[in-house]
Structure formats: C-alpha cells, structure tokens
Automatic annotation (TrEMBL):
InterPro entries: Transcription_regulator, YdjM-like. The chain crosses the membrane at residues 59-81, 125-149, 155-173. GO terms for molecular function: hydrolase activity. Keywords: Hydrolase, Membrane, Transmembrane, Transmembrane helix. It comes from Vibrio panuliri. PANTHER family: HYPOTHETICAL MEMBRANE SPANNING PROTEIN, MEMBRANE-BOUND METAL-DEPENDENT HYDROLASE. This is Metal-dependent hydrolase.
Length: 333
C-alpha cells in the first residue's frame, strides 16, 4: 500500500490500545514504524536492475522480522517522540512493534505479493482484496484519526481500525464474486482454467481484472461487481515459452537467470510482448483491466554477453483516452 495508508493504519492500532496521556507519542510511533518496512526500496543496484524486486517486501515484511523491526524503530524513535513524554523504552518498543506489524499484513491484502514467512519460505502472499492505492480505504481512517487526536477520543481510533478490517473484508467478498464470474465465463467459452484470479483495478473494489490460465494462454477480462454484474470481455495472450520465444538465449546466461527472478516476482504470469519480441511482460497488471498492456516488463538483448542483466522498464499510460476508458468501465457504462 501507499505510505499514507500504511502510516494511518499503524497509528490507528497504537491509538486504539494506548492510554490517553500517551496519545500523541503512541500515534506518532505507530505512524512512523508502520511506514518503516518500505525502506527496503533503498536496496538497489545500478548494475542489477532487478535487485529491488528481489528485496522489496522480503525480509523487512516478514512476520518473523516484526519484533526486530519494531526494536530498530524504537531505538531511533524513542528519543525523538517518546522519552520526554513519559514513555519507557519498553512501551516505545511495544507501540513500534504494533505499528510495524500492520505493514506486512496490509501489503498482503494487495496483489503485489509479500513474503510474510521469509526465511521459512519465499512464497509471495497476495490476497487480492484491495488496490495498492484506495482513497475509500484511506480517507475515512485519516479523518477519524485527526478527530481522535483533536478530541482526545480513543474510540474514534478504534472505529478507524474497525474500518481498516471491514473494507478489505468487503474486498474479499467482491473478489470472490468476480472470480465466480470468471469461472462462468471460462465455462461458457468451453475453457478449463488451470488457474484463475481476480485482482482489483486501480483505487477501487468495484471493477476487477480477471485472469485465467489455460494450457498455453492467459485470458484477461474485466468484471464490475456492483448491485448488477457487468462484464467487459478482454484480450488473450500466449504464455511465455522461453525455448520457442528466445531460442538464442543461453540457459546459463544472466538474462536467463533474470527471467527466473522476474517470474518469481510475477508469480509466473509472464508473456512475450506482441509489440516487442524482446520484451517480457507481467500480465497481472494493466491500467485498463481487460487489456494485457503491462505496467512493467524486462527487455532482453541477443547481443548481450553471458553476464549482462536484462533491462527493467515501467509503462504508465495515463493519457486522457486511457483514463476515459477506465472511468467509463468503473461507472458501468
């Protein structure tokens, strides 16, 4: 999730359990500690463009690391926000750990994938119940927390925390509705999916991207699950076949290893870009949910030596035409 959502969720939890004299400091500790795990984005390399993908949402987002992350935050934040307000270091550690612990759980509610149980497993958990940014989730929490601090009313913080649980729960119901539509679509097309997932589109839990996998193909559709169901039939694209799509690629080359790393990050949802035969796309994400136009990709080079990395690129189509298509679908038109 975005830093603001992470911060206010952490603050809502610490304010919900603190005593009134600790209200400001507990809220500040929860706010800052809950944003700290995303400092892993600083782990980058100019030589290895996929290094940040490997470490983002990895050890700093593991539930096993939460007490350690809370301790590190307390060591930094206690002197700044808590010691002069009467909190002991143990109390600061407690509030920081609570705030820090909300971060990986909220991230797992999104579609990106979070290594909750690292180092026991490197599996990326993605519950697909909320978008990476969703103002309907975040703004009520912000408003309630502002009033909780101004009015010294801890119950407002508890209501904010309740909303932070209720909204993803509604998202889970919406996800299951979208997946049910996806299974019905596949049945009508006489397809037998090997895997099917529904993912919320940007900033809402009303319009969903449904992806299902057959033997050689990804099928992408959009489904609006409001009081009525609206289906937007979409595109299909062949699954990546490295031997067929890149016959010149050495199996021991760094580029081949980078494809494996990108596949792990993308949960295997890879395809060759039809507009650029040297590009591999992550099929899971697109601005328009019934399209395969990816938000990020890697590009290979047949001229690269065996130690050269792939090129990583992001693709953000925010043109007026794209926005209009998205909002038209969101409105159910």
């Amino acid at each position: 999730m975005d830093p603001l959502s992470q911060g206010v969720l952490g603050a809502s939890l610490t304010l919900s359990v603190c005593k009134k004299p600790h209200l400001v400091s507990a809220g500040m500790l929860g706010l800052l500690a809950s944003m700290a795990p995303d400092l892993d984005t600083l782990i980058r390399s100019s030589q290895d463009p996929l290094l940040f993908l490997e470490f983002h949402r990895q050890f700093t987002h593991s539930l096993l690391f939460v007490p350690i992350g809370g301790l590190i935050c307390a060591l930094v934040l206690h002197l700044l926000f808590a010691k002069n307000r009467g909190l002991t270091f143990t109390q600061s550690w407690f509030y920081c750990t609570l705030g820090y612990g909300t971060h990986p759980l909220l991230d797992a509610c999104t579609t990106y994938g979070t290594q909750l149980l690292w180092p026991l497993t490197d599996e990326r958990y993605a519950w697909n119940v909320i978008s990476i940014i969703d103002p309907v989730f975040t703004l009520p929490i912000v408003i309630l927390l502002v009033y909780a601090i101004r009015k010294h009313n801890l119950w407002l913080a508890r209501i904010a925390l309740a909303w932070a649980v209720i909204y993803p729960s509604v998202g889970m119901i919406q996800r299951d509705r979208a997946e049910a539509v996806g299974w019905q679509l596949a049945k009508e097309r006489q397809h037998t999916p090997l895997q099917l997932e529904a993912k919320p589109s940007f900033a809402n839990i009303l319009l969903w991207k449904v992806i299902y996998v057959t033997q050689d193909t990804y099928h992408v559709d959009a489904v609006r699950v409001g009081s009525a169901i609206k289906i937007y039939p979409g595109e299909s694209i062949e699954k990546l076949d490295i031997n067929k799509d890149f016959p010149w690629l050495g199996s021991d080359s760094q580029q081949a290893k980078d494809i494996e790393r990108f596949a792990h990050f993308s949960n295997g949802y890879l395809a060759q870009d039809p507009n650029n035969k040297l590009r591999i796309i992550d099929v899971r994400y697109s601005v328009i949910p019934n399209q395969t136009k990816a938000l990020w990709s890697i590009t290979l080079s047949p001229l690269a030596n065996s130690e050269s990395h792939v090129e990583y690129s992001t693709h953000r189509d925010t043109s007026p035409a794209t926005r209009q298509i998205f909002f038209t679908m969101l409105q159910g038109d």
